[in-house]
Amino acid sequence: MTSPSSASSSGGTLLDEAPLLEVNNLVKHFPIRGGLIGRRPTGFVQAVNDISLTVGRGETVALVGESGCGKSTTARSVLRLLEPTSGEVRLDGVDVMALNQRDLRRARRDMQIVFQDPYASLNPRMTIRQTLTEKYELFGHQVTKSTISDLLDTVGLAEEYADRYPHEFSGGQRQRIGIARAIALNPKFIVLDEPVSALDVSIQAQIINLLEDLQDELGLTYLFIAHDLSVVRHIADRVAVMYLGSVVETADRDELFDRPHHPYTQALISAVPIPDPRVERRRERIVLRGDVPNPANPPSGCRFRTRCWKFEQLSETDARRCIEEPPPLYEIDGNPAHQASCHYASLRDVVRS
Amino acid sequence: MTTPPQSGREPDTHVPAEALMTRFEAPEPGAADATDTTGKGKKASGQLRDIWRRYKRNKLAVVGLVVVAFLMILAILQPWITPYDPMEQNLLNTRKPPSDGHWFGTDVLGRDMFSAIIYGVRLAMIVGWSVMFLSLIVGLALGAVAGFRGGALDSLIMRVTDIVLAFPALIGAILVVQIFGNGIWQVVIALAILSWPTAARLMRGSTLSLRESEYVEAARSIGASDTRIVTRHILPNAIAPTLIYSFSHIGVAVVAMASLAFLGIGVPPDIPEWGTMIANAVPSLNVEGESHMWVFPSLAIVVTTLAFAFVADGLRDSIDPKLR
Questions:
Q1: Is residue B187 part of a domain?
Q2: Residue A222 — φ and ψ, nearest 5°?
Q3: How far does A104 lie from chain B, in Å, by closest CA?
Q4: Banded model confidence at residue B298, pLDDT cuts 50, 70, 90
Q5: A173 vs B43: CB contact, 8 Å cut-off?
Q6: Whole-Å CA distances, A9 to A215, A220, A222
Q7: In whole angstroms, how large is the CA radius of gyration of chain A?
Q8: What is the CATH number of the domain that holds B135?
Q9: Domain total for chain B?
Q10: What is the C-alpha separation between B164 and B160, in angstroms, rounded?
Q11: pLDDT (tens digit, 9 = 90+) per residue, B40-67?
Q12: Could you write out the DSSP letters of every residue in B207-275?
């Protein structure tokens, strides 16, 4: 029940083995500066609030949530592309937070990222060969003629593309180039920051399959950021659901999709369309009202309560607990791999395909 | 899952916006798709060829380029072209209208106007290009640093540009020349001091927007240093507006030098400079038969400035079509 079903195909995750990536109490606050000579921040956007994550070797952990919930900020903070406010990040035993700029640059070899927008993530004035060669040079590697062609071959592009500029490629092809840049020099860990959400649906599948193949071939570990649950369901071993800067529920993939406990997760899963019209018609959707609250001024207690469908049904005394007491991550049914941060977490029948 | 009818790996339906633009503008076949589909384009020449293809379409810019090239040749070959020493006076032959011996006539001191005008071309080219390179280099460096670093350094640099830009251009130039004394290089420095702030601001603006771009973040993610990010990733993508500004400023510099010289400031009065020549011709403005004394230097200024303006215009359209 606890071991992800696809773990065997992706190199095997042993429970007692130390995780490749360990994130503890990660916090990222952006200061809001106001006023004319505003040097002193007048407030903080609490983009990432006390997030803890572990990603096992060869595993794919998906981070899902609606836009603006802090998924990308979390990923960038883990990689220190954004400097986190506080927290601990360990990658294969290396304390990433303690590295100085020089060592950090060297350590980037092991932690890579594929960006969401393949149109923006490639330098328009550099050919593909220049873009890819740059990485080898930066890490002091000799580039022979076959280096780049082998790399392009790995991501399914022909070598003759190497001397073209990014604008000569389609979105899917560019994303392959972005992936090639990330997997060059065999990193241990790759953040996939919504790598397919800017692509055509027909091409999404190709890229997802490519990512899965590469994971099998190279033993890669992924942190997959997405808002598309059907993609997550396909690729992830474990899923963490984020809302307003915090993880609200985390579980193995099948467990999460079959037995979601947090009202937000339940709402998200109920929104996934089902490709069977008969089931689709019976599907009961939980529609969340209102917008995500301002992360500079989040609600007290449970951050989700302002939009929670369950909160509305609670008695006044029960509801007070949601207002006053921020819910910790509760273990669900004694399963340490399944946690939800809701005082009143319970199973709810969700119609799914 | 339904498979699309195409059997290829990926239907390449993406047409770059640039290509679309050219298709609408230039219906001639072949020109529309110089972004070759066969992959035979050489490394860097591909972009240059694209720029030239767009540049060619602007006929005025091509004319401007020819004139600029011609002026450059005149400037370089001046010592061998001029029939007389441009400084040589002949007090027995003053204010003579154009003739076989003196194509553009002679001035108040009997100097050959043709030789003086060509010498003026040399001056204009030296000053124009020097001002451009100086202000471009200073502007790029300070603008990139201000935009990339931000913070106190950014504020400092931007306040300095504010101060310099607060001076009316000519008054500022007069002030600087008064401080450094007369001379060609003093004029160059004065004009460069007055023109780098705009270049720096343009560069800062482009840098600011590119600093947050994903490919800069991507460069950082593969361990690139700040210096490398600025020089390899930001500069090539941010340089176009600044470059075009600096280039269009060449004509402005030429006019500014002439204006200063007209007022008797900057270039020493014994050196034949277009502004000085016009100033010398002021008493002859309404004298019949002496109009050549102000017509030719004025024409020289107009032709030079227009040529550079046309080229700058063409460059703007061809280097970066988005700037239009």
A1: yes
A2: -115, 140
A3: 8
A4: very high
A5: no
A6: 9, 12, 14
A7: 21
A8: 1.10.3720.10
A9: 1
A10: 6
A11: 444 456 678 888 988 999 999 999 999 9
A12: HHHHHTSHHHHHHHHTT--HHHIIIIIIHHHHHHHHHHHHHHHHHHHHHHHHHHHHTT-SS-TTS--HH
Largest Cα–Cα distance of chain B, in whole Å?
97
Cross-chain residue pair A178–B218, CB shorter than 8 Å: yes
Strand partners, A23: A53, A89
Q: What are the tokens at B221?
A: 């993610």
> Which of B215, B221, B225 lies nearest to residue A123, judging by beta carbons?
B215
CA angle A6, A9, A15 (to 5 degrees): 65
- At B309, the amino acid letter reads A
Amino acid in the structure at residue B83: P
Residue B173, domain member (yes or no): yes
Distance from CA of A81 to the nearest CA of B (A): 7
CA B59/CA B57 separation, integer angstroms: 6
Q: Is B151 on the interface with A (CB under 8 A)?
A: no
Residue range(s) defining the domain that contains residue B76? 69-82+104-323
Yes or no: say if A59 and A237 are a contact pair by the CB < 8 Å rule.
yes
Find which of B48, B49, B155, B221 to mutate to test the A interface (most A CBs within 10 Å of its CB).
B221
Token digits for B187?
A: 């004029």
pLDDT per position as a tens digit, B212-266: 999 999 999 999 999 999 999 999 999 989 999 999 999 999 999 999 999 998 8
What ipTM was assigned to the predicted interfaces of this complex?
A: 0.85
- B59-81 vs B45-56: helix crossing angle, rounded to 10: 100
Q: What is residue A184's three-state secondary structure?
A: coil
| Residue B61 belongs to some domain of the structure | no
Q: Assign residue B2 a region (left: φ > 0; alpha: ψ between -120 and 50; beta: otherwise).
A: beta
Give the three-state DSSP class for A212.
helix
Two tokens, residue B261: 């010289």
Note the helical H segments in chain B.
Answer: 17-25, 45-56, 59-81, 113-149, 151-166, 169-180, 184-211, 214-221, 226-228, 235-262, 274-281, 292-319
Interchain CB contact of B212 with A (< 8 Å):
no
How far is the C-alpha of A54 from the C-alpha of A84, rounded, in Å?
A: 17
Cross-chain residue pair B237–A124, CB shorter than 8 Å = yes
Identify whether B265 is part of a domain.
yes
Residue A22, beta-bridge partner list:
A54, A90
